[in-house]
Fold Sodium:proton antiporter.
Amino acid sequence: MNTELGWLSLLPSLLAILFAIITRKVVLALLGGVLLAHVLLFMPSLGTGVISGVSSLGEVLIDPSNQLIWGFTLAIGALFGVLERGGTFRHFVAALQQKQLVPNKRRARMFTWILGVLVFIESNVSIMTSGTTSRPVYDQLGISRQKLAYLIDSTCAPICILIPLNAWGAFNIGLIGNQGINDPISTFVASIGLNFYAIIALFLALFVAWTGWAFGPMKGFEQQVSSNHVQKPMAKVNNETVNKGALYTVIISLVTMVLMVPVMLYITGEGRIVSGDGMVSVFTAIMVALGIAIAGTVWSLGASSKVILSAILRGAWKILPLAIILWVAIALGDATRTLGSGEYLAGILNASLPIWLLPALIFLLSALTAFAIGSSWGTFAIMLPLAIPLALGLDLPVALFVGAALAGGIFGDHSSPISDTTIIASLASGSEHIDHVRTQLPYALLAATLATAGYIVAGIWIASA
């Protein structure tokens, strides 16, 4: 087996990035990286390398340490499948509309920001909830739909990456754990405060929500809507349309999922939350929430077992592509560690680039990848197996490099017209898609500029430490 390949050890990851950028097919790019890595390991025996690559995929899939990762990834999809397709989520949205707590523009924008932050479990659910709930209010008050699209897009993804108690956290904790990090949860939590772009984007959106600040193309849309607007009486939602049991089912299941994680960490850690089993805790919390969602849907709406089963399967199926990305990414990470690509890259960068520049470089490379492929999750799967070994090889703070890679993925995703969250934000707000891209980009670039400066400062700090 070849384990000292020099620059050849970088090829699997680099070609995976290049192929993903050109084709936007992340799974195929990662799969190709896995096969190429094993071919390089067993050169010149091509057949042995291919067989080894395929075998490695099977080994990763059935590895007991990965079973909980697949379990809670699919379970989170099943949970939201039950809430959405079972019908309870519809009543939750109707109840929010019914309250009519948004009599003016500022409160309407703040309502959108707060809702986007509170529904932090899954970005697309958060976007659809915030967008569909806020849109009638924005139309009534004369706020542009482009402003709505920006606010929901710039709260939902950033808050999801900053909260570990959701599918995003589970996905990235799994990636971190498979890079040789003994305590992936602590590393991910430490990276939250170093995810400069997500933090800046979130608070920039809060500033815009509070002040109504508009610049660039957004200013033109705001002026156009304001000049053409004729205020109409706010439509009311009939109280009878909201099933209280369905409403409480959504609230109780989501709150339970959030609260169960620290409870389970305490139990599995025998009284010490920091010593708890994070994977078991998240999986248990999701399964309890799923049980509540199923029971509440049957009790409040009389859903049949057929409807519940269909909702579970469809929800799990919807999130299956993310589980597949994670599966192949873990296999690629295992292969690149065997190749020694992290150590080689660390040596090259240490010799050719100043250490203070590396966090900013990781951020920008991650952003470019996410912009090109339109997938923040796909970018995480590609970049974390590069960023973490680099940090380990140079004996630098792993959390900083994780934060930079995740931040770049969010920025590139925000800026990309082919991003799924960008497209869903346009749909949920009722904005023309290209208008949303044009109006959001200046805000994203402003946040990214500040984030880049932050990573340069952080790089200077670690270089001088």
Observations:
- The chain has 21 helices and no strands.
